[in-house]
Specification:
Layout lengths: L8 E2 L15 E5 L5 E6 L3 H20 L2 H17 L1 H12 L3 H21 L3 H5 L1 E2 L6 E9 L2 E5 L7 H12 L3 E5 L6 H11 L8 E4 L3 H9 L6 E3 L8 H9 L4 E3 L11 H4 L2 E9 L4
Parallel strand pairs: 1-3, 6-7, 6-9, 7-8, 9-10
Antiparallel strand pairs: 2-3, 4-5, 5-11
InterPro entries: Ald_DH/histidinol_DH, Ald_DH_N, Aldehyde_DH_dom
Organism: Protaetiibacter intestinalis
Protein name: Aldehyde dehydrogenase family protein
Length: 284
Amino acid sequence: MTRLTIPKTYKLYIGGKFPRSESGRSYEVRTADGAFLANASLASRKDARDAVVAARAAVSGWSGATAYNRGQVLYRVAEVLEGRRAQFVAELVAAQGLTTAAAGREVDEAIDTWVWYAGWADKFVQVAGSGNPVAGPYFNLSVPEPTGVVAIVAPQADGLLGLVRTVAPALVAGNTVVVVASERFPLPAVSLAEVLATSDVPGGVVNVLTGSPAEIAPWLASHADVDALDLTGAGELDWVDLEIAAAETLTRVLRPEPGVPGLALDRVTAFTETKTVWHTKSLI
C-alpha cells in the first residue's frame, strides 16, 4: 500500500499561539526546484492588528524584566535552536537550494547571533548610557530605554539568518516585535516561532506573520500603536510611502539595507529612547 503524505499548513504566531489567518487564506511554498513543500498562512490586515495588540500587551512584562533575565531568555532560544539544528538545515536545503554544508553554516550563524545579542542585554546600557557633566550639585544620568512595539520587515532573500539578525537586537532592550517573514521562504520563520514558544520567551514578545509584505507592511507602518518600524527587508517595496505613513504617528524608522545585516550594537540602540534623569547630590 502506498502511503499518502499529509500536506502541512503552517500557521501564524501571535500572542504565544498559532492561529490560522482570520481570512482563511494560505499560499503554496515550493522547493528550490519547484516541487510542493507546504502551505503557509497568508496574513491579513486583521492578523497584523491582532499581532500589534499582542505585542503591546507584552511590552510591560518584557521591558520590566531585568536585563540579566532577558539575556538568559535569549540565550535559551539559542540552546533550543541548537537542539533543532537538523530541522532548520533541512528546511534551508529544501526551500533555498543550499548545500547541506552552506545551510549548516547559516544555522550556526543564526544560533551565534542569539548568543551574541544575549550577551549585550545587561551590558549595552553601560555603553549607550552616560553620566553627564553638569554645573551644579547634581547627578545627571542618561539611560537608554525601550521604544516599545517594533514592526519589522525581515530580509526577503533569506529565510532564517536575516530574520534572526533583525528580531534579536530589537528584543535586547525590552522591545516587543511584530515581524513579517520572508514571503518566499517562510518555513524557517514558523519553525523559529516554535522554538520561541518552547523557550522562555513570553507570549506576545515576538509575533510572526507570513504572507505578502506588500500587503501587510502598509498597515503596520500606519498603525498608531507601532512605535518603531524596521524596513531592513523592504528594499523591493515602495518604502518611501511606508516611511511617510509612519511619520503620521511619529513612528521611528530604520531604512532598508541590502542583504543580511551584520552583528551591531547600533541595531540595539536604534530602538531605544534616551531618558535623562537629574538627582541632587547629598550635601552631607
